[in-house]
Structure formats: C-alpha cells, structure tokens
Recover the amino acids of this structure.
C-alpha cells in the first residue's frame, strides 16, 4: 500500500463510451501524474499536475482529458477511445522537495477498449 | 526519447543467488531511481541515488551510479522467490520543482525457489 488509490481497477469500454478514471492520495503531495503502460513499451508519462495546475501534457490525444480539482484528486476522462488505448493506466504522486523526489504509484486501472 | 535502458531484458536465477541489473541512459541527470512492479500492479519505489553519489545501500539492495559512463546497476543479494517482479530504472533530469521521470522498458526477474 503506497497511499495512492485508483478506481476502478478494471474497466472494459466500447469505443463510443465515456468513462472516467479516478486517483486519490492523502499523503500531502502536491504533484500528481498519469502514466500509460503498454506491453513491451516503457512507461509513458501522459500528464503532470502541480498544485492543481497542469504542468505537462506529453502530446496526449484529446480523447484523454485530465482533471485535477484539488491536490488530492486526479481524474482521467475517456471519450471515443481506440483499441490501441487498451493498457494499464497508472497514477502517481510525489511530495514537494528540493528536486529529489520519489513517486508513489497507485495499483493502476486495467483498461480494455473493445 | 527513451532515457533509461535496462539490461538484461530478462533474468532467471536460483533463490539465494545475487541478481545484477544494469541501466544506461543518454543525458545528464539529477538523480536515478529504481522501481519494482509485481505483475499487473503499480510500481514501488526501491531506491534513489543522486548524481553526486556513487553507491547506495538499502537492506539487500545495492545501487551504483557511474555518471561518466551514464550507467547504473542494481544488485539484489541473497534473492528470494518474493523478489520475482519487473524492475525499472528511471532518470530524473530536473532540478527543483517536481520530478519528471523517464522510465526504461524494465527487466523481468524470476527467482526460482
């Protein structure tokens, strides 16, 4: 248990569905991250939020829409996804520091797009 | 572009043996971190080594960093079946603010009982 929770743990959706992934941390961290993990590929950073402000968008398609209402919660809204978007989506958070940060990961949401 | 690249891609050892995993990277870093991931789960932070450090220990883990060769190694001593997992190195090139980690593809370690 890292203190970062993600729901749902598994999600199956059609290409026309709209769904949301949720991430929550009560570790007092100020930065939150979304990553995509596909088989045989390195972990891909998607978005970074720092004190609720988006500081990084790693050229992610607009069918993925993040939302960070406060420093403890992060959402990833999904719309009109493609089968190649099937992957494990990981949320992470990190504390403020002088530049030496470990990231705390949630267990991930296994997404399957049919 | 991929920063950390682990070697080997897969490693199978007997319980009690030591496991050595290597990571190479391309650009200057602020720190390098190793993470473990059990199948289908999130990543767990193992150890962080700063760019001005050469070696660090944590329990059965030993990490080295050679900035001149842009490489790091993770040694797990006296391995256990529970060490079976994927291991990732991640480089952080930023100073200040929050980290932006670049991960490698990972090494699959199997420890046979």
């Amino acid at each position: 248990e890292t203190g970062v929770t993600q729901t749902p743990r598994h999600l199956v959706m059609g290409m026309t569905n709209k769904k949301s992934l949720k991430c929550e941390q009560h570790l007092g961290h100020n930065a939150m991250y979304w990553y995509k993990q596909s088989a045989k590929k390195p972990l891909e950073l998607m978005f970074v939020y720092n004190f609720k402000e988006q500081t990084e968008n790693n050229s992610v398609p607009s069918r993925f829409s993040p939302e960070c209402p406060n420093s403890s919660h992060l959402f990833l809204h999904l719309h009109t996804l493609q089968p190649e978007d099937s992957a494990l989506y990981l949320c992470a958070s990190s504390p403020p520091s002088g530049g030496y940060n470990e990231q705390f990961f949630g267990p991930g949401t296994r997404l399957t797009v049919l | 572009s991929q920063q950390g690249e682990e070697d080997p891609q897969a490693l199978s050892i007997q319980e009690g043996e030591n496991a050595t995993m290597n990571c190479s990277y391309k650009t200057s870093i602020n720190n390098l971190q190793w993470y473990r991931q059990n199948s289908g789960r999130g990543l767990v932070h193992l150890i962080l080594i700063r760019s001005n450090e050469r070696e660090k220990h944590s329990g059965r883990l030993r990490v080295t960093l050679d900035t001149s060769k842009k490489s790091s190694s993770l040694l797990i001593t006296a391995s256990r079946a529970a060490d079976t997992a994927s291991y990732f190195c991640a480089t952080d090139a930023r100073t200040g603010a929050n980290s932006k980690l670049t991960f490698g593809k990972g090494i699959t370690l199997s420890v046979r009982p």
Remarks:
- Chain A has a mean pLDDT of 92.
